[in-house]
Amino acid sequence: MADEIVIADTGSSDRTCEIAAEHGARIFSIAWENDFARARNRALEEVHTDWVLSLDADEMLDPESPRVMPELLSRATIAGYKVPIRNYVLSLNQRVWDRSAQPNTSRLPAASGYPAYIEHENVRLFRRRPEIYFEGRVHETVGSRLLSAGLKLGAAGFVIHHFGFVADPETRSRKNHLYRELGREKTRERPQDAQAHFELGVEELDNFKNPAAALQCFERATRLNPHFQLGWVFSAVALLQLGQYQEALSKLRSAEAAGAKSLLVFECQGDAYYNLGDFESARRCYRRAEQRGADTAALDTKLGLAEVRCGRAAEGIAHLRHAIEREPQSVEPYDALVSAYVWLGRLEEAATTAENKLEAVEPQPQFFLRAASIRAHLQDFDRTIHLLQKGLGLFPHAPKLLEARRELETRTEATKAT
Predict the structure, then answer these.
(1) 3-class DSSP state of 89
(2) Beta-carbon count within 10 A of 272 CB
(3) At a CB cut-off of 8 Å and minimum separation 6, what does 208 contact?
(4) On the CB side of 308, how many CA atoms lie within 13 Å of its CA?
(5) Sign of the alpha-carbon dihedral angle for 379, 383, 389, 393
(6) Domains of the chain, with CATH numbers?
């Protein structure tokens, strides 16, 4: 049991305060000033206990925590603990910064329905002392204060479960826009803070799909701190999205010179080489990522395509089939396997794969069009018209499907006339 529960309410509109009060929480309202650190520090002013555990509204403390916490609080030399935070996500292909998703093995009922989580650490359990407070308008932390004060950090033996990444799209959109606004303010307030520029860049890249703006942020971060590994790595990620593959390789060399050896480095190198047509180098990079522990359907797909283009057709097809087995409702592995079969001239297998995709994933007009196109190349016109008719049954006004059917009917009539 906690000695006290303090809730700082910045404007909830549901029954949060009422429910919390029923469980013995002490609640007070504070004005929201576009500053998470300020809000958290205002909450700290109301705390009277020797230790503080900070939780967000979309987080849950692991049920095992009470068992291990007393021993952690008894360590006289420790001023704070880095707590693993499990961020639940909807796909094993997602990442947070440079961290990849891993299969969800949690037995927590609230988390069991999600396929994966991405783990990071943050200082959430710490002593209540005047020199320990939150810094940063967004992505706020007390960790920097602990380190600058020369205080000792330990590793917590419990986890916090975070559900913010699986919120509904509207909630996520509101949060993304708020974080971008706060990130911009943070860089104006702290123009020499490389981390602040990096955080804003990630927001632009991942949540607003704006690699050009993100690149400016990442390059600013590496100018401020040439040893900033993630700044170099994410500069390369942005350049890949901009189609500047040689420049991306240059940034990745700088990342490695700064000590970066992450799986993301190898995968990005593979992406750059593949798009430059150096398929053997791409294959080697993807293999390095695989050997270092990367284990996703997305990497299987990339490695499979690279192997096919290197002349290792059997190995490549096996990787692509494995990717489909792992994520049978994902579009990308099917598309890659179709492309591989087409490139190998195995059109019958390409057509079958394209048709299997129609049964496995949420259909779109272009999926029917591609399957029909391959059948047309095989001169299997009965099957072609069947696929077009099936697509039009779901999407009766799809212009490209209508056009393809008209062309096929015109060709069939001309053939009959001759």
Answers:
(1) strand
(2) 25
(3) 176, 180
(4) 23
(5) negative
(6) 49-166 (no CATH), 168-260 (1.25.40.10), 363-418 (no CATH)
Helix axes 279-291, 263-275, angle to 10 degrees: 160
Q: Token digits for 335?
A: 């598309």
C-alpha–C-alpha distance, residues 390 and 372, integer Å: 10
Exposed / middle / buried, residue 207 (Cβ in 10 Å: 0-12, 13-18, 19+): middle
Close Cβ partners of 51 (under 8 Å, ≥ 6 residues apart)? 73, 125, 126, 127, 128
Q: 158: closest CA among 109, 116, 113, 124?
A: 124
State pTM to two decimals. 0.91
Closest by CA to 233, choosing from 274, 193, 205, is 205
Helices (H), 225-312: 229-241, 245-257, 263-275, 279-291, 297-309
pLDDT digit string (tens) for the chain, length 418 residues:
688 999 999 988 899 889 989 989 999 999 999 999 999 999 999 999 999 999 999 999 999 999 999 999 999 999 999 999 999 999 988 989 888 899 999 989 999 999 999 999 999 999 999 999 999 999 999 999 999 999 999 999 899 999 999 999 999 999 999 999 999 999 999 999 999 999 999 999 999 999 999 999 999 999 999 999 999 999 999 999 999 999 999 999 999 999 998 899 999 999 999 999 999 999 999 999 999 888 889 999 999 999 999 999 999 999 999 999 999 999 999 999 999 999 999 999 999 999 999 999 999 999 999 999 999 999 999 999 999 999 999 999 999 999 999 999 888 776 666 6
Least Cα distance to 303 among 276, 326, 285 occurs for 285
CA distances, 91 to each of 164, 354, 373 (Å): 14, 23, 31
Helices H / strands E in the chain, number of each: 19, 11
Q: What does 338-362 look like in DSSP terms, one character per residue?
A: HHHHHHHT-HHHHHHHHHHHHHHS-
Contact, 184 vs 203, CB < 8 A?
A: no
- Buried-state track 141-172, b at ≥16 Cβ within 10 A, e below 16: bbbebbeeeebebeebebbbbbbebbeeeeee
Query: d(Cα 393, Cα 402) in Å, to the nearest integer?
Result: 11
Distance CA 292, CA 200 (A): 29
Q: Where are the beta strands (DSSP E) in 95-238?
A: 95-96, 99-100, 102-103, 116-127, 153-155, 160-162
Closest by Cα among 102, 117, 139, 143 to 62:
117
Interatomic CA distance for residues 335 and 278, integer angstroms? 21
